[in-house]
Amino acid sequence: MKLQKDNIEAVLAEMTVREKATIIVGAGWGSLFEGFHLPFCHGHRVPGAAGETRPIERLGIPSIVLADGPAGVRIKQSGATAFPAAVSLASSRDPKLLEEVGKALGEEARAFGVDVLLAPGMNLMRNPLCGRNFEYYSEDAELSSEMAAAMIRGIQSAGVAATPKHYALNNQETNRFHNNVIIDEKPMRSVYLENFRRAIAEAKPWAIMASYNSVNGTPVQQNKHLLTDILRDEFGFDGVVLTDWTKHKNPADKIAAGVDLLMPGSNSNIRSICRAVRSGKLSETRLNEAARRVLQLIVKTPTFNSSSKAGQLTQTQKEAHAALSRRAAAAGCVLLKNENNALPIAPDAKKIGLMGVHSYNTICGGIGSGFVNCEHRISLYDAFKARGFRLNGRSEETYTAVLEKKSNLVKPAGLGCVTKYMAEPVYKEFRFFSEDCVHNVVDLADAVIVTISRQAGEGVDCKLEKGSYYLADAEMELLRSMSRRCLHDEKQLIVVLNVAHPIETDSWSSFADAILLVWLPGQEAGHAIVDVLTGAVKPAGKLPVTWPLKYEDLPSAANFPACSKDNKPVKTPDGIKDFDYTRYAEGDQIGHYYFDRHPEIPVAFPFGFGLTY
After folding, report:
1. pLDDT score for 567
2. Model pTM?
3. What 3-state DSSP class applies to 460?
């Protein structure tokens, strides 16, 4: 008997306990590690994909491929399109646009031989320092669910599974494997689970990823209350629950709680599940449920339906998706300030004074799962040059020389393999500019632009320090010098914020006549930014997250990340003994939910803010 779409129950009845355990346990780390160029990992169907399931050849059950995909299909092979980060897409407030991007992601996944995209990320932005905020949509549950649902519909319209993540309360990267979130049931449901509930109801994803962290003392992946009572019985989710990528110490407990697929999986996981069934610790009925759901997923996939190509995108697809990425990036730009009509750049402007190292190396995406191995990345410098603008010679020569020599590189924080193979180069701003250089740049320019950039990503949260949440000294000196000279020459200073997360603005925003927030805009970054700067596209983005005036004004500030320093068991104030923990003492008071109720507390830029021309 061979698996068909209409004989799943018959096939399930033919399977042994070991075969059922085999299809609910992934094939291991090899596919992912091949993307890290490790010599002992080779021969996988899609090198660099996050993982694979295991086949059962005698029953015609194929393995399927899972790959990261929040901003593009992340595999070893280059050629996938790098789309804007989720926070940028959400700034567009355009579900139809997100559905288009989702469909393109699904088409690319199918073209590269991928069956399941581990996207979208949809945790709420509890605190601006979370390292993966750029992968998420908003601090607002309704907006997050609307954007996520559109993305899910788009991906699955191409016949590829979407996997909303990380369910649930994965709102920080610090100690993400062991952190215990302590939260009351009411805010957990009304805020942090509400966006998942809505997205599931609206878009019916085929899979969902369970997060690493614990909630109220129980690991999510072993939390029957979250995975079965709420997700299945209340939210009506009927797809596959798979784990985030980890070693599994208690595989049978995870299956019993409601997990259907252990990723990346190991042979010992299979043996452990078989022993648990034989001993009665895990019921075969529950094993059957998990195996059935995995089979139901498999028969929907491109691999099973012979539409998976494991090749390259066509040139037509590349061009269409690049154009879509550019359009989406421009739609996500948010105009935060525009005094004296500094923007758009005047039509007769031909000479650009372009400063800031990341004007010449625009950061397109984040570190880790949000990285895409695309064929090109267009910087702001590239885009201005392509349109025939003249750049100031002294700054151009200095910055391009730095990039060519790869001097002043910053080592990204995070796991070694992740930062080595899943990150763009990032440079530290430097003090090469003398007052004479600043005068030269401004005096000869029709428009003066400074870019401030921040990258972030998997495994590490941002810091409440200079160079992260606050401007570095070199950045502040650059803005101050440029502003002083622009004021002297009666010219206007435009600041482009190419950032993964909100940063402090109150100490420097007065230096700028215009501030354009472009987030992490994907591979066509420079073209999209210039489209907006020149007025070819009018900015229409709206902030999906509040930018506080002072970090300390945030209710979550007192409890982020709030983990013990030595990674040992700690005791909470009310006597609960647990692992490192984060107490969500603010309840449902995150972002605009809090500031809307406290209008007396000023913010830098409120949720929903955005100017236009």
Report:
1. 44
2. 0.96
3. strand
